[in-house]
TrEMBL record:
InterPro entries: bL21-like, bL21-like_sf, Ribosomal_bL21, Ribosomal_bL21_CS
Organism per entry: Nocardioides gansuensis
Its job: This protein binds to 23S rRNA in the presence of protein L20.
A cellular component annotation (GO) from this entry: cytoplasm
Gene Ontology MF terms: rRNA binding; structural constituent of ribosome
Pfam families the record matches: Ribosomal_L21p
UniProt-recorded name of the protein: Large ribosomal subunit protein bL21
SUPFAM superfamilies from the UniProt entry: L21p-like (SSF141091)
Oligomer and partners: Part of the 50S ribosomal subunit. Contacts protein L20.
Amino acid sequence: MYAIVRSGSKQQKVAVGDVIEIDRVADATEGDSVTLPVVMVVDGETVTATGLDKAAVKAEVVGSTKGPKIVIQKYKNKTGYKKRQGHRQKYTQVKVTDISL
């Protein structure tokens, strides 16, 4: 059994026991429980994509991580304009504990 969950603007395939990285959850500390919204559930031959109001994927917060450093550079020719900016996305690692319909 696995489910497709929505976390932020992304969707991920999860099963019980998986550890995934989702966009940072501000008020979550290590050991807290988080509920992720479900888009689709697959249980063997049964695929459920509608009527998932009561479906939930429960996950436990494992810790927090950071993504790779991304360097953004802007440059305009012959004007002397150049700008350099960096970004590093923050993530929360969660372990899926339960998938319920």
